[in-house]
């Protein structure tokens, strides 16, 4: 009887461990935390969250260019981080950035790891002559193929839209009330099933 109870308890621990692992994947080792950039007219800077990713960022004129090609134009299932074509060629009030949820941890492959952190590090956007810092606002997931943002929103429409997204949040920073320019980081369907993750950050400097 004791052995049966011990086995049942062990099974529960294993099941709980597996469940937590699926919800908050352990960060994957990646050798791509140090980026290499090449001469490319679409290159607009680098984007990073300390210890999670550090990648070159591109602004193409369509959303297919870097989906399955790298900055050199070669076939590459990892793709590149890129601004949605609807966001324009520069970071604006509402900016949507796509990246693959790669199994090896590159691009946005480690992004979901942030869900398991008590404090989420700032997002840093570095250009040649200036650096901007963005604080975490909220994160959510969805399983359909739609984009989180397909048009620029301003004024009251913008605030209503943000509140609508917050209601879907699976993690948020309730102390972060200042809402400046917002960056949405959106993954593709990747290594963890059909979920797409979206993380919103607001500019603080």
What is this structure, in a nutshell?
By secondary structure, the protein is of the alpha+beta class. The chain has helices at 2-23, 155-166, and strands at residues 43-49, 53-58, 81-83, 94-99, 123-126, 131-142, 171-172, 182-187, 196-203. Helix content is 17%, strand content 26%.
DSSP E strands, number: 9
Low-pLDDT segments: 1-35
The biggest beta sheet is recorded as: 8 strands, mixed, barrel
Mean pLDDT value: 75
Task: For this entry, give a set of tags.
single chain, 205 residues, alpha+beta, Sortase, Chain: A, 2 helices, 9 strands, globular
Explain this structure to me?
With 205 residues, this protein is an alpha+beta fold. It has a single domain (28-203), classed as Sortase, Chain: A, CATH 2.40.260. Helices cover 17% and strands 26% of the residues. It is built from two helices and nine strands, in the order αββββββαβββ. The termini are far apart. Mean pLDDT is 75; it is low at 1-35.
């Amino acid at each position: 009887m004791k052995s049966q109870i011990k086995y049942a308890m062990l099974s529960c621990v294993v099941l709980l461990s597996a469940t937590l692992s699926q919800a908050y994947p352990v960060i994957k080792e990646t050798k791509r935390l140090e980026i290499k950039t090449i001469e490319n007219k679409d290159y607009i800077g680098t984007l990073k969250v300390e210890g999670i990713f550090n990648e070159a960022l591109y602004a193409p004129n369509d959303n297919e260019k870097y989906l399955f090609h790298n900055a050199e134009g070669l076939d590459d299932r990892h793709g590149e981080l890129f601004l949605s074509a609807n966001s324009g060629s520069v970071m604006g009030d509402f900016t949507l950035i796509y990246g693959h949820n790669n199994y090896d941890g590159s691009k946005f492959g480690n992004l979901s790891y942030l869900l398991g952190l008590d404090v989420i590090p700032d997002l840093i956007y570095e250009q040649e002559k200036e650096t901007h810092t963005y604080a975490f606002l909220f994160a959510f997931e969805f399983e359909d193929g739609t984009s989180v943002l397909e048009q620029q929103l301003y004024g009251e429409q913008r605030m209503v839209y943000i509140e609508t997204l917050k209601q879907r949040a699976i993690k948020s920073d309730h102390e972060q009330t200042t809402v400046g320019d917002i960056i949405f980081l959106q993954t593709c369907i990747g290594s963890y099933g059909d979920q797409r993750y979206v993380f919103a950050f607001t500019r603080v400097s």
